[in-house]
Amino acid sequence: MSSVFRDGAVVDYFVHSRDAPGVDERMAALTPAHWDYMDRFADRLVARGPTLSADGEEHTGSVHIVAVRDAGAARRFAEEEPYQRDGLFVETAIGRFVDLLGRSMWDRPRPLGSRQSTFVLARWPTIPVDDQLVGAARAAIVARPDDWVFLGLLVTDDGTGSIGLAAAVDADATAAEQTLRGLLAALRRERAATEVHRWERGGRR
User: Fold this and answer.
1) Domains, the chain, ordered by start
2) Do residues 58 and 194 make contact, with C-beta atoms less than 8 angstroms apart?
3) How far apart are CA 74 and CA 52, in angstroms?
4) Average pLDDT for residues 115-139, to the nearest whole number?
5) pTM for this entry
């Protein structure tokens, strides 16, 4: 899958939507339409899947990483999605994403015996995207390559500044947060604001 640093023709974008309250029934009715819509982007998705409540019973949001030509195309991808069009999201964040793994989530199937996955998000004030930052991230990944379902830096619109990272780990929330903290320490971003959400791989069941 192409990224901002590997192919100027397409850019990876991170799209994170949070559900509005009380939309469960409407969302369930629109799920086939959502799947049909995402099928159109199957060859351009790095990752997809819903965030869930801690007990795994409630849908709380959606995460997608998609390769498109520019920010306008990323906004259209988000705005034309059926849940979004029907007003089921209270908030959607869209930003450039630098895939540090060089693969999609489908290249790393869920390990046998893994019962839970977790989406982790970290945000920090803008810092340069330079060789030191990327090198530190890659070194941390090489040390524990099997930890990550997907992992990438969130960057500014021009690609020169890093503002955080987004990732998923096949582990429960406690273990996933420990894994995230290890990476943040390697990046010297220990004070980053973090979020941890139960997550599952998306797609037709």
Assistant:
1) 11-199 (3.30.70.1060)
2) no
3) 24
4) 92
5) 0.92
Task: Burial-class residue 32 by CB neighbours within 10 Å (0-12, 13-18, 19+).
Answer: exposed
Report the run of H or E that residue 20 belongs to, with start and end. none
Which of 119, 150, 155 minimizes the C-alpha distance to 134?
155
- Give the tens place of pLDDT for each residue, 139-175: 888 877 788 999 999 999 999 999 999 999 999 999 9
DSSP-derived secondary structure for 87-136: T-EEEEEEEEEEESSSS-GGGSPPPTT---EEEEEEEEEEEE--HHHHHH
Distance CA 166, CA 62 (A): 13
Instruction: Answer for the pair 1, 46: CB distance below 8 angstroms, yes or no.
Output: yes
Nearest to 46 by CA among 89, 86, 6, 90: 6
